[in-house]
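Thread title: Can someone regenerate the structure for this chain?

I was given the following input by a collaborator and told the matching structure tokens would be attached. They weren't. Posting the sequence so someone can regenerate them.
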Amino acid sequence: MRVLMFGWEFPPKIYGGLAVASYGITKGLSLQNDVETIFCLPKPCGEEEKFLKIIGMNQVPIVYRDHDYNYVKSRIPDYMSPEDYYNFRNHIYADFSYMNVNDMGCMEFAGGYPGNLHDEINNFSIIAGVVARAEQFDIIHAHDWLTYPAGVHAKMVSGKPLCIHVHATDFDRSRGKVNPTVYSIEKNGMDHADCIMCVSELTRRTVINEYHQDPNKVFAMHNAVYPLSQELQDLPRPDHSKEKVVTFLGRITMQKGPEYFVEAATMVLQRTRNIRFCMAGSGDKLDEMINLVAERGIADRFHFPGFMRGKQVYECYKDSDVFVMPSVSEPFGIAPLEAMQCGTPSIISKQSGCGEILTNVIKTDYWDIHAMADAIYSICTYPSLFEYLQKEGKKEVDGITWEKVGIRIRKLYDNLINR
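Best answer:
Regenerated them for you:
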């Protein structure tokens, strides 16, 4: 089985949970042995793993250029061959000479989330038409609203079934103040999809109720984690017998509820001063949170280490006694699972999708800062509670694997193709 997959992020370039989930899903599918994934990215870095075929949409021509073999070879990256370039060139389907293309007839992408994001989404979907005509595949899988137009275009070209993967909706990102343009892109993708995979039952209900989708084609497909590498397992846990560390790690945005973390920290520090709080990450509310910490008079107990990636993230988890995710609306939330892998007890909001599959965590409403503060204080104060959540949490999360997710996705693929 060949899967044509459209995504906006993929490791080693990670902007958020979308990259981690895209990697996990494709890796889980690769373990089925007979599934080949063709993963289309706006701008690959060339360091992606080789268990799947990567297509850089910035290397797919949409305007004919008559270049010889050696010139093409000198201009394209290692993960692509001149034959690939010529194959795509032979499937240009319209006159796009009015578009802004380079000497290879290709469109450039900024990578990530630039100011002209909607233009890049449109360009991505134009290129998807070339790819869908040039590649052989059995099914289409599009991740998040950024690639839904590409998925819809590929379906119209090929007639193949379309799966879309809802990692978040604009209702989650905006606390209900939905951007009508984004909503229309999301709804159009859902309307054209033959199967909608949602990262939680929470998200599934949003898709059914807010986007008016047929419940029979909407499925909860929870995320998972991969076993830690030996290098990460061997990271030491520092001795915190004198001072405990409580961590928030993620985007510092309205959706993640960082202000509730600060308010809970303020309440904890009214009881004890032997706890330090860490807010790791970046986002549009960072300055506001720094000011709030100063206003609450807890700046001497609070740290803002900035954005973390790769090994730094796991060092941060290992250096923490409690991980807190107070999200206002969290479709899934992989971070608590990663923290639990590292032996760090987690507190999550009841508004988090991962809470549907996690038992050995403490769950509070995001707005209930009293309950959140009590939970933080209890884990930091009572060793038996810390040890129980550490041991049982790690055991639980070790059984939540991407391989199992890959098996479930493969079954949905089979059902769609056979239907």
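Residues 107 and 419 are 37 Å apart (CA to CA).
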